[in-house]
Specification:
With 177 residues, the protein is of the alpha+beta class. 60% of the residues lie in helices and 17% in strands. The protein has a three-stranded mixed sheet. α5 links the parallel β2 and β3 (169-174). α1 runs antiparallel to α2 (32-63) and α2 packs across α3. The chain is rod-shaped, with a radius of gyration of 32 Å. It starts with a helix and ends with a strand.
Length: 177
C-alpha cells in the first residue's frame, strides 16, 4: 500500500508543480526570462519527484532496510505482526505433517487401502499448537468383513496417539476406491 501512496504523492506533486509553473510562465513577459522560468520549473519538477523518494530512503535508514522494505510491500513489521505470521505458518506446517503421519499410521492397519486426512491446528495459551479437529476418510478392502476396522477403533488410535479428545476426530469409512 505504501508504494501506491508514494506514487500518488509523486504524481500529485508533479501535477501541482507543472500547473504553478505554467501559470508563472503565462504571467511573465516573453523573452529571455522565459528560458530561466523553464529551467526553474524543471528543477521544481525534479524536486517534486525526489521528495517522496527521499522520504522513503530516510525511512529505510531510520527503521532498517528489512523493516522498511516489509512495510513498503505491506508485510507485517511489528514484532507481534511477525510473530503472528510465523505462528500461523507454523500451525499450517504442523497440520500438514500431522495429516501425513496419520495417513501413514492408518494405512498400516489391516483392511485399510487408503486414508485421506485433514487436520486443523490452532494456537492456545503461550502460543502452543494443538489439534482443533481431524477429519479422516478411509477406504477399506471389504466393508462387510468382520475384521474391517470401525470408526471407534480409528478414533481411538488417533486420539490416543496424539493425546486429543476423540470427539475432535471425525471418521468416514468408505468401500474400496
Amino acid at each position: 500500500m505504501a508504494v501506491v501512496a508514494t506514487i500518488h504523492e509523486i504524481v500529485r506533486n508533479v501535477v501541482l508543480t507543472v500547473v504553478v509553473a505554467g501559470l508563472v510562465e503565462m504571467l511573465l513577459p516573453s523573452g529571455q526570462m522565459n528560458r530561466y522560468v523553464k529551467l526553474v520549473a524543471g528543477l521544481f519538477i525534479i524536486a517534486a519527484i525526489l521528495a517522496p523518494l527521499t522520504k522513503q530512503i530516510e525511512q529505510l535508514s531510520r527503521t532498517g532496510a528489512a523493516t522498511a522494505l516489509a512495510a513498503w510491500q505491506g508485510l507485517p513489521t511489528t514484532d507481534k505482526g511477525m510473530a503472528d505470521a510465523t505462528l500461523s505458518l507454523t500451525a499450517r506446517q504442523y497440520a500438514a505433517r500431522v495429516e501425513k503421519q496419520i495417513e501413514q499410521i492408518l494405512e498400516l492397519l489391516p483392511g485399510v487401502d487408503k486414508a485421506e486426512v485433514r487436520a486443523d491446528a490452532q494456537t492456545g495459551s503461550a502460543n502452543q499448537l494443538s489439534l482443533a479437529q481431524i477429519q479422516i476418510r478411509l477406504w477399506v478392502t471389504d466393508a462387510s468383513s468382520p475384521d474391517t476396522i470401525t470408526r471407534q477403533q480409528v478414533e481411538s488410535v488417533v486420539s490416543n496417539f496424539y493425546l486429543i479428545d476423540p470427539k475432535l476426530v471425525e471418521v468416514e469409512i468408505l468401500g474400496n476406491k
